[in-house]
Amino acid sequence: MSEETKSSGQSATSSDKRENQEDQASDNGTQANEKYEIKVESEGQEPESPAMEDIEQQAEMELGDALKRLEEAEEMVRRHQDDMLRVQAEMQNLRRRTEQDVEKAHKYGQERFVTELLSVIDNLERALEAASAEDGQKGNEGMASAGDEQSLEKLKAIREGVDLTLKSFLDCFRKFNIETIDPHGEPFDPQLHQAMATVEDDNVEPNTVTMVMQKGYQLHGRVVRPAMVMVSK
Length: 233
Description:
This protein is α+β, with helices and mostly antiparallel strands. The protein has helices at about 5-45, 50-110, 110-140, 145-175; strands at about 180, 195-200, 210-215, 215-220, 220-225, 225-230. It is built from 4 helices and 6 strands; from the N terminus they run H-H-H-H-E-E-E-E-E-E.
């Protein structure tokens, strides 16, 4: 090869090297520019403004207050519901008590009146017993005069009249659920009987009513007057 050919080859090689170096330098410059641009962009971003932070904090506070008020409202609703249920229960109890009072007033409203009538019944029974005793005494005396016979007839008529009056009273009592307590020969019941005395009596069981001194009465099952009795020991 001639010297001109060698020199031209060396010149081409040197030229290639310079081009490669220039390409590398260009790439490095491009990468440096990109890094610089990224850094500038990151540095150029503005931070969140204080106004936005205040708005977010205020929104969170308002949300917390709203939730708190909601809880308070729910608690108030529960209390009002409990109060309403309590009032309803009280009204039902009041209605039942009122109905019971009205029923008792209908049943026992005449109790005082019945108590006053008991003395009339007692007097009629005493009159009937006295008339029966007198009639028996006259009959035991044997033959009587004409005047005595007339007296006996009058006494008999009076006794029959008293007996009919007493029966009318007792029928009226039964219509109004007034029952007689006549416990002769029955076991003593302190709910219905009032023991006036105790007596020895071997013919009956202990704690048995041997004599009724005064009958008792009850109205719709409630004792108006207990029977006055004598009880065996």
